[in-house]
Amino acid sequence: MQTILNPAWYQGRGRRSPYFEGWYFKLVDRTEAHRYAIIPAVFLTAGSEGPHAFIQVFDGVNGKMTYIPYPLSDFWAAEDRFEVHVGPNVFTTTEMQLDVRHPDLTLQGAITFHDPRPWPVTVFSPGIMGWYAWIPLMECYHGVLSLDHALGGEFTINGQTVDFTGGRGYIEKDWGQSFPSGWVWMQTNHFDAPGTSLTGSIAMIPWIGRAFRGFIVGLWHNEILYRFATYTGAKTDYLHISDDVVAWLITDRLYYLMINAYRGAAVDLRGPSKVDMGVRVPEALTAEIKVRLATRRGDHTIFEGRGRNAGLEVAGDLETLAGKS
């Protein structure tokens, strides 16, 4: 129970293959000229790759991904807080210390996270998964550790020093047996209105021998988290996926949320299946997301804006995911 109520913590103690758990740190510097996703993870498998830990580093501007494997013995996680070590690299909710030495990438330095905004956790709704977090043996679980926070510190990347002080960051995680058969994921916290952040995903969820289309969206604006999810009773009225845009309309009894995510150039990251890290995860950090939140009664606009430096993944069986909507 304590672990479920703290989704940031390592959830894999005592788990057997197949199992993965990874944390996703997005970093954008103050000038917005440098955008990185850094993903520490552990992967338990009986497949040919064998159990191991790894770090993926994605340079969203230059479109380069580096996968750095580590022996499983180099992975360590605290039992009573979020603190993960992968080799000499350390990750917590307040800082990241990296010492990556790879033929394709050297990366050293430390970044601090200031005033993180985690998704609220209660007994009845322990994080972004809602009450689904209590359901055992789901294919994939999700957590949001910080919707938005300020950055401090710098990295030296292949000999070039990049100062992230004054930039913005985001942290989330996934764990379970494998990624879904099809999904769309998006995130941005670079709107003209400071402190506004959007994160959302829609995916095919296996359920008692069948599958349903489940989604979770959170819009943080003016210190209020507007939540739209399958478990809150919200509905996807329209979902259109093309090579250029993901158009998504969500409604509940009070609001409607219109999203147009304009797809940037994607690079294939590696994701987990039940046997290996062979799932292709096309991700862009150059997407843009246009958002409008309004009341259903009176059509009063609460927020309208366009988010830059957006993370966007559009992957898997998209025809089934889009359905007839």
What does this structure look like?
The structure is a single chain. The chain has 325 residues and is mainly beta. It has one domain. 2% of the residues lie in helices and 59% in strands. The chain is built from one helix and 22 strands. The strands form two sheets. Strands 1, 2, 3, 4, 5, 6, 7, 8, 9, 10, 11 and 12 form a twelve-stranded antiparallel β-sheet that branches. Strands 13, 14, 15, 16, 17, 18, 19, 20, 21 and 22 form a ten-stranded antiparallel β-sheet that branches. β2 and β3 form a beta hairpin. The longest helix is centred in the C-terminal third of the chain and has 5 residues. The termini are far apart. The model has no long low-confidence stretch (mean pLDDT 95).
Throw out a few tags for this protein.
12-stranded antiparallel sheet, mainly beta, 325 residues, 10-stranded antiparallel sheet, single chain, globular
Structural class: mainly beta
> Mean pLDDT, as a whole number?
95
Query: What's the Cα radius of gyration?
Result: 19 Å
Shape: globular
Task: Report the β-strand fraction as a percent range.
Answer: over 45%
User: How would you sum up the major sheet?
Assistant: 12 strands, antiparallel
User: How many helices does DSSP assign?
Assistant: 1
How far is the first residue's CA from the last residue's CA?
A: 38 Å
Number of strands: 22
Helix content: under 10%
SSE order: EEEEEEEEEEEEEEEEEEEEEEH
Instruction: Identify low-pLDDT runs.
Output: none
Number of domains as seen in the coordinates: 1
